[in-house]
Amino acid sequence: MTSKADRSQDEVAELVGRLVTPEETNEAERRRLLGRLSRALVRSAKKTKDSVPGRGRWLADVFMNIAPRLPIRDAATLREHHYGLTGEQLADDLVRTAAKGTMAVGAVGGALAAAQFVAPPLLLSAPAQLVAETLVVAAIEVKLIAELHEIYGVPVPGTTTQRATVFAVAWARERGVNPLAPGSASIAVGAAAKTALRNRLMRTLGRHFTTFGPFFTGAVAGGALNRIATKKLAQAVRADLRGHALPPA
Predict the structure, then answer these.
(1) Highest-pLDDT range among 1-5, 32-36, 221-225
(2) Phi then psi dihedrals of residue 42, to 5 deg
(3) pTM
(4) Contact, 155 vs 246, CB < 8 A?
(5) 106 and 195 in contact (C-beta within 8 Å)?
(6) d(CA 100, CA 231)
(7) Which among 15, 69, 84, 236 has the fewest CB atoms less than 10 Å away?
(8) How far, in Å, CA of 88 to CA of 161, rounded?
(9) Which residue has the higher pLDDT, 150 or 57?
(10) DSSP 3-state of 98
(11) Could you tell me which of 226, 78, 236, 55 has the C-alpha nearest to residue 128?
(12) What distance in Å separates the CA atoms of residue 225 and residue 213, rounded to the nearest whole number?
């Protein structure tokens, strides 16, 4: 029988999955989904200890439940979805799409936080919205990293969960995976990797607090900062993958 905790985790993962492709939803729908995600996260957070380290661990645990459910496309599907583009052109288009996605989520999340900034009775609910934005942006960027590996011909072995773990750690370290380096695609997540993931999520959350401003400054800041960060991440990962690409079979 499914527990309430499991149902809550499933709801969070399902909502993030719908938000990682924001080009398929309009602004009103994104706003509604982020609101639902915020409420689901509040219910989940009540089950953890009220401490900063506890919240960090909880945030990492929530994200690692989401990561294996992200819809990662293979190279052939990516070419089909991007009008037959290949190689660097396909990677360019994929990065543009991801940057637009994080910008759209940041703009909606920033606008929600800004709206509540001028309404003191609702101020306490704003952090949940920023956590929701953080998880969605992280999910979009992990999905981007995984699909860039497909484009550059750098396969990561393992099951869906194992590969999701590797890509989440790659996101935390802002690097591509080198399949030829011993242990680089290890399926085990050690203490250092968990710490790196937790710290990266908390840094991303901290960046989103800059969107917590009055009127529409939050929307502008949220969208711009997310877009810049996604492009910077993609640039670093692509530089790694160009050096690690394997020859065609």
Answers:
(1) 32-36
(2) -60, -45
(3) 0.86
(4) yes
(5) no
(6) 10
(7) 84
(8) 28
(9) 150
(10) helix
(11) 55
(12) 14
Residue type at 168 in one-letter notation: A
Which amino acid, one-letter code, is at 209? F
Per residue in 106-120, pLDDT (tens digit) is 776 555 555 444 444
Rounded to 5, what percent of the chain is helix, strand, coil? 75, 0, 25
| Out of 70-74, 123-127, 149-153, least confident range | 123-127
- pLDDT higher than 50, residue 16: yes
Contacts of 88 (CB under 8 A, 6+ apart): none
Taking a C-beta distance cutoff of 8 angstroms, is the pair 160, 249 a contact? Answer: no
Nearest residue to 172 (alpha-carbon basis) of 74, 78, 59, 55: 59
The CA-atom distances, in angstroms, between 59 and each of 12, 48, 117, 134, 141 are 12, 10, 23, 10, 16
Cα gap 236→94, rounded to integer Å: 15
pLDDT in the model for residue 194: 86
